[in-house]
Please model this.
Amino acid sequence: MRVYDSLTRSLVELPPAPGPVGMYVCGPTVYQRAHIGNARPFVVFSWLRNWLRGRGYDVTFVHNVTDVNDKIYEAAPGRSHELAREATAWYLHDTGDLGLGMPDEMPLATETIPEIVALIEELVDLGNAYAVEGDVYFRVSSFPEYGCLSGQRPDQVEEQEPNLLKEDPRDFALWKANKPDEDTWWDSPWGRGRPGWHIECSAMAEKTLGPEFLIHGGGLDLVFPHHENEIAQSRAVGRPFARIWMHNGMLELGGAEMHKSLGNDVSLRNVLDTWGREATLVFFLTGHWHGPLDFSDEAMSAARARADGFREVFRNPHVPGPEETWSRFSAALDDDFNTPAALAVMHECRDHDVLRRALAIFGLESLAAAEKPPADILELAERRQAARATREFAEADRLREELERAGWEARDERDGFRLVRIGE
Model:
């Protein structure tokens, strides 16, 4: 299997199974409800975990939660800890409703403070970092490889966090002194404060996966400065860190006119409540993971129709497919995890066993289970069938209309009838 690596800007081969495959994926900064775009890395890398495990790999999937960050302090002055706790619960609930299972570990920055402080101390001792009045900064000039991921030249890097006391405008914060309005803080060798954003992920990744692991994932918007700074911090103290960097493309939300069904609320919660998890997952399947994906009512309607198309396959007789169907599906996912190509194979498939197996990779096995009609609906359909058999067509039509008002359709077949929900 091969995937696109942002660091080498090329397709790279994964080592043979069973691995191990350590996979660290940057999660949300929790200060509000996650929007639908925030869900893309969770979905893509959950699917990748499923596929790799199906291929025999020993996968450990880590997805962190950033619960200490400037955005949280700004959103809730004096109650940042409370907001972070609430928003973390929202994220766990909403992503849980996608039905993909949860990552193996979901570390919190607040639970990794000792490891963060220890890593900063190493950087200071090695001369890669320095303290200034309670703040600690990474010395960018001490790491010649800086810019290797983003392609930025070190002499062209813009200042990330303005401070006249820094040695170099390019240097970024590892530890920040506590400010009067910040209610969450920890003691450290440099005084009371809290960690910077970038050092949190370096420490959480090492704590859960060790000094070297196979895949680091996250959104394309994290390449610089977040992931560039992670590489600098971790490699400066001699950690090999991640070998492959996978960055999913961004979701293009467009204007409010593109998703009128949601109003101004493009949260994952509202999308799931409005469109359902199956249409949401099928929508994500339609875009290649490292390309952009347009989100709109039209795209979601099309995804819902695709999901209904899969349901229809399982309402019809099983048709054994060509032996190469699964091989074509596998080849699509083994070639840079190409879900649109895999989706095309799935749409051609009428083999229930193969299609059910493919849907399970993406958390869509529920599409293989047709809804059973209630007993009273089944009785109406049977009475209609009996009326047709005795040529009482007026009564049969009346019963058909009654079924339709209840939301069901009786589809006549050679050996009887089949009940399906209207709209499915």
Q: What stands out?
A: The chain has three domains: 2-248, 265-368, 375-421.
